[in-house]
């Protein structure tokens, strides 16, 4: 994968590799090929447990040493409901752990974002005017 992406490095400033939320072969290959990782995370307890396991590995490289220069670019909270105590606690723990790497922008829990895959569409195309899509459009603007 690293070799296949090398051609793109000359043509594009950024290449995004969207991976499933698991440390499977696709994700591991992507982490080895990447310069940095942006970690989307639900504002819930089990997601917090999972991210602490993953981030505890050598510079977010679960195989330790296959990509020692891999950096965590940031962590963005998704499906976030700031009205719940749990979400606030998860955010607080992430701030302690990741500091400035935790993005200020959050992606709210939004039914229109959840419906998009069932219609075979990207969230931004399914309902571009939904609150969730608007937050995706602005995610990362001035975050770090």
Largest sheet data: 2 strands, parallel
Identify the strand order in the major beta sheet.
1-2
Shape: globular
Low-confidence stretches: 58-63
Give the overall average pLDDT: 80
- Count of strand segments: 2
Return the structural class.
Answer: mainly alpha
What is the element string, with H for helices and E for strands?
Answer: HHEHEHHHH
Radius of gyration over C-alpha positions, nearest whole angstrom: 16 Å
Measured as a percent range, the helix fraction is 40-55%
Alpha carbon gap, first and last residue = 28 Å
Q: Give the strand content.
A: 5-15%
Count of helices? 7
Features:
144 residues; mainly alpha; 2 strands
Architecture overview:
The chain is mainly alpha-helical and 144 residues long. It contains 7 helices and 2 strands, in the order ααβαβαααα. The chain has a two-stranded parallel ribbon with strand order 1-2. It is globular and about 45 Å long.
């Amino acid at each position: 994968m690293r070799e296949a992406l090398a051609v793109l490095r000359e043509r594009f400033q950024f290449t995004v590799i969207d991976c499933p939320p698991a440390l499977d072969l696709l994700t591991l290959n992507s982490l080895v090929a990447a310069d940095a990782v942006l970690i989307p995370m639900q504002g819930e307890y089990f997601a917090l447990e999972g991210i602490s396991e993953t981030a505890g590995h050598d510079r977010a490289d679960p195989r330790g040493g296959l990509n020692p220069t891999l950096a965590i670019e940031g962590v963005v909270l998704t499906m976030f409901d700031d009205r719940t105590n749990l979400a606030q606690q998860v955010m607080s723990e992430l701030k302690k752990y990741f500091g400035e790497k935790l993005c200020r922008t959050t992606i709210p829990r939004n039914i229109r974002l959840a419906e998009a895959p069932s219609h075979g569409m990207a969230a931004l195309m399914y309902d571009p005017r939904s609150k969730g899509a608007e937050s995706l459009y602005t995610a990362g603007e001035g975050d770090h």
